[in-house]
């Protein structure tokens, strides 16, 4: 059970006499924090009494519920509702203790707004009831018997205890709380790291520390992640990408398979876009939800680590006609969701419904939401799940200039944040290399994953494609149009095999998911190195470790922004499960005991991350080096030969320029995916310079070469299935 945060916290003064809003809702014409108690009494006087409550028209441009000295402002917009009723609940109650209908003259246009006097925010939760036409064939399904969650709610009740169904009817599953927004950021500054310099570490907040081996005091929480900041700094990453932390219902589709309870663990089923997931906190944060998350973000930023949120604006947890009815369905179903001509739901998300992102109302809500997270949580970036959906029109057709994507690209509040698209959707739209960008959007480069995976395991026909990926995919992102900040390079992410499993399993093993191993991707481009699954064979294990190092070295020596999955750096396994979305257990949780067991892998990752940071020529073009080499060049077994043929299994890429001190900085990456040794030729250097190997994964646990080895000859023998990284030194 969680401990309840006490109101005696010095950061949270008593609410009776203190303004509780520190930042107005984005787009608001009113600065609510400037309203004093005196002004409430002198200027904002009650005009009506409804069911025993003093009320007056509210602030129509401030969406959601906002605390004022002496009262609360409630604002809700609905295009088609004919009436709206505010419901007040005692905490954890399923029935309202008060109902306050909005008078007709409290509605301006499609907006209902009302100040209710005398409310104390820690004494109630709230929801709405709306009435309107019921014509399902037109997408109109208003139902005045349903309780509707405020889409702008800053905190949501109903699923705050992880994995526990509350004894509550479906009708009142979710309610909202009003939140104090007075977190003191002090002089904390965001890192504002250029995209090309980021090293992104994708993690699941719960799974990162939930395992007993994590050694944290608050496992599975924001606080638990904060305890791991020293580890993240030691590793060297400078950006964490958090899988969904918006409020979601992990109990959605809860089922039991072979005695194990399966949940919607990943969280790609948003309930509310403005509210943090309360089950990720170590303490219950009544009316101060978000405090622990803000402390985490502040601490990460102060340690030079950016925070990127994985956001899901392509669908919601309401699903299709068979799904629950708790928010947008009752608000404006025909506006918020893409509907077929007969009123059914388009399903380009694979999750039952598709958010109608380019409708002006939905577009504004998404923009308001992202601004809210940037202003109030100091978020540094967003990764958009199934982002191609965000570029579909209301009739589902792809758009050449999607209004939503364009408005996000040019929005001034979002001007410094990273915008990263997963440039495909479940409806077959694949836009890697063609996602509308305005030179602002980056993309998860799925072609990098596929081409590099295939080449590294020795498949024929991939040398030329792999060369393009390592050089920043200029065939997909022309430097003169997209620069070198468009490609987020990755070999692993939450969706698929871990890096360890990529070289331990040739096929997926998702039997624990309960779908007879039919779920998850079949095109994994993985290789078990000679044996499927766990083995004590030392030769196979040595090869697996070498393949992991090969993948790490290539990723860190590729132009573009590298990203890898948490736990890859110490050989975490999901036991062959490549779709662990429902596994809230040892399959998904990071086993930190592997950090010590596989220390060799961790040290290699740490070295390669530092190596990348030390060599700016990998990340982008600099001034030319003194040797006259081009910024990037391709090589085969012979230097300067890039005539790759179908069975080419060696690839060399050289980066050259100068470093921050003005000295030549030249890095050569050689990849031998052949199963035999190869003698390669390095590019010849002036007599004043020489090559030294920095990394050779063919040397086993001595892959990182700490003592300088001068290569007087421009030849080098590479062991089978190995990666070589060389750098240039001056003789003087």
Automatic annotation (TrEMBL):
Biased composition (Polar residues): 1-10
Domain of life where this protein originates: Bacteria
CDD domains: AmyAc_Glg_debranch (cd11326), E_set_GDE_N (cd11234)
Keywords for the protein's UniProt record, in alphabetical order: Glycosidase, Hydrolase, Transit peptide
GO biological process assignments: glycogen catabolic process
InterPro entries linked to this entry: GH, GH13_cat_dom, Glyco_hydro_13_N, Glyco_hydro_b, Glycogen_debranch_GlgX, Ig-like_fold, Ig_E-set
Key word tRNA processing present: no
Keyword Hydrolase carried by entry: yes
Family per record: Belongs to the glycosyl hydrolase 13 family.
Protein name from the UniProt record: Glycogen debranching enzyme GlgX
